[in-house]
């Protein structure tokens, strides 16, 4: 069309042409991205990052490890919770190194899991965050900055999957919800995806019940130092273990009652729960694991949000004990009605409203899931209750996003020795390398090939342990 003819077009028609052109451009952009995401190219060009493969971004150490031949996929990893100071049960100095996968310790990608992923052509990247502790906001910021760094330094991925363990599972889900423009799939593992307040409320429930029934000296909130919190954990640990061993005096039943209140795991990586003795040991381990976050973890959180965010002022503990649990407790000489009455009369804890709001704002899931998301959780998790998955599923349903969420559960063998421990399925984030690699392959097959995951289908990649019949049940009752 000549310039003159174009000038004679009515203004309204020019507007229609302009809008149509803009729509076509938008459609082309979306199609271009989708074409890139679903690409089967296994030899995508990239720039080697050299000395820029490691460094610090906004105070957070990071690492990038590249395969010999890139399939175009970036796996952006977020690590799990690390105490801000040395804490229970090992009291080792917490790591401050970046991680590029679940079992990588120093950002080098020399562990067996990372090597498997690299051999399949994945590029790996991960951060250490700029702080330890409940560093959700730091973790989200670190992941976003690292993706930008990777794109500028190495190249634009055809697709990016975010994945992480424990607190990193929560971080990965938040990153996915907030960054639909570049996240193409998500794989949170053993994630605290019910968010901050629900999880710390349960830690308060554990501490409150132990204080009321087992150790009156236990401090519930307001620790003044990490040393005070650690000393408290050591003292209460000794008291709880002594109480659990007191079968004749009713101590064992009290400990099992506390476990029942919070659905504590009766199998752990060490104890298979095959008999009552093993169940008691597993319950003690689960409660002490939770108590670590109710002491040292709480100290860190209360410093961050300037007060106590947890609340049990309206909690009905008696309602948490089912008829089946009550019968079992009575079988071992327990008095569950009496324990519940004692809890009902004990002084409660009210949250500082500003602190509770501040804790929530550090980062929580919304259920606004826009990309294929596959979570994986051990059925017996002593730290991050498997019911975290129930909360995320409910939020996804409320957002109309249930079709973009698939949740896989890994069951442990029925029995295993204390010497060898559970190979998978019991314990926090206790998965095999095959299960982790299989999870990534499951997400990838959904994203690139539109193959909707089923437990049976996932089992082909993940191997033994996937339990398609398992349902985690509802979250333990708590205040809103």
UniProtKB/TrEMBL annotation:
<keyword id="KW-0732">Signal</keyword>
<dbReference type="InterPro" id="IPR029058">
    <property type="entry name" value="AB_hydrolase_fold"/>
</dbReference>
<feature type="compositionally biased region" description="Polar residues">
    <location>
        <begin position="92"/>
        <end position="102"/>
    </location>
</feature>
<protein>
    <submittedName>
        <fullName>Uncharacterized protein</fullName>
    </submittedName>
</protein>
<feature type="region of interest" description="Disordered">
    <location>
        <begin position="88"/>
        <end position="109"/>
    </location>
</feature>
<feature type="signal peptide">
    <location>
        <begin position="1"/>
        <end position="22"/>
    </location>
</feature>
């Amino acid at each position: 069309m000549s310039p003159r003819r174009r000038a004679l077009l009515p203004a309204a028609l020019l507007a229609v042409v302009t809008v149509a052109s803009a729509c076509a451009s938008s459609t082309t952009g979306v199609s271009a991205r989708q074409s890139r995401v679903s690409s089967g190219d296994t030899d995508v060009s990239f720039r080697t990052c050299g000395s820029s493969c490691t460094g610090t971004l906004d105070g957070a150490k990071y690492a990038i490890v590249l395969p010999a031949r890139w399939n175009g996929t970036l796996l952006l990893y977020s690590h799990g919770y690390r105490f801000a100071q040395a804490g229970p049960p090992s009291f080792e100095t917490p790591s401050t190194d970046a991680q590029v996968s679940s079992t990588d310790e120093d950002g080098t990608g020399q562990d067996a899991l990372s090597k498997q992923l690299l051999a399949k052509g994945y590029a790996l990247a991960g951060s250490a965050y700029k702080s330890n502790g409940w560093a959700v906001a730091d973790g989200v910021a670190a992941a976003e900055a690292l993706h930008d760094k990777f794109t500028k330094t190495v190249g634009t991925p055809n697709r990016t999957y975010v994945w992480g363990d424990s607190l990193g599972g929560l971080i990965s889900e938040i990153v996915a919800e907030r960054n639909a423009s570049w996240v193409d799939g998500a794989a949170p593992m053993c994630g605290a995806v019910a968010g901050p307040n629900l999880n710390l409320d349960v830690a308060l429930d554990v501490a409150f019940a132990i204080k009321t029934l087992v150790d009156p000296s236990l401090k519930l909130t307001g620790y003044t130092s990490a040393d005070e919190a650690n000393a408290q954990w050591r003292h209460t640990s000794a008291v709880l273990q002594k109480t659990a061993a007191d079968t004749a005096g009713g101590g064992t039943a009290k400990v099992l009652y506390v476990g029942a209140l919070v659905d504590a795991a009766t199998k752990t990586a060490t104890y298979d729960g095959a008999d009552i003795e093993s169940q008691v040991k597993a319950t003690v381990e689960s409660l002490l694991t939770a108590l670590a976050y109710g002491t040292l973890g709480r100290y860190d959180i209360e410093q961050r949000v300037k007060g106590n965010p947890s609340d049990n002022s309206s909690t009905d503990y008696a309602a948490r004990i089912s008829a089946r649990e009550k019968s079992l407790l009575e079988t071992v000489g327990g008095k569950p009605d009496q324990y519940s009455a004692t809890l009902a009369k004990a002084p409660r804890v009210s949250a500082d409203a500003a602190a509770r709001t501040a804790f929530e704002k550090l980062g929580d899931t919304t259920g606004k899931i826009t990309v294929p998301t596959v979570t994986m959780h051990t059925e017996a998790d002593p730290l991050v209750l498997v019911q975290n998955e129930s909360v995320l599923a409910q939020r996804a349903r409320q957002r109309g996003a249930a079709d973009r969420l698939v949740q896989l559960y890994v069951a442990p063998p029925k029995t295993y020795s204390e010497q060898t421990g559970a190979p998978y399925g019991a314990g926090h984030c206790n998965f095999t390398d095959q299960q982790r690699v299989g999870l990534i392959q499951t997400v990838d097959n959904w994203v690139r090939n539109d193959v909707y995951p089923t437990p049976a289908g996932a089992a082909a990649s993940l191997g033994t342990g996937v339990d398609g019949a398992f349902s985690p049940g509802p979250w333990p009752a708590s205040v809103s």
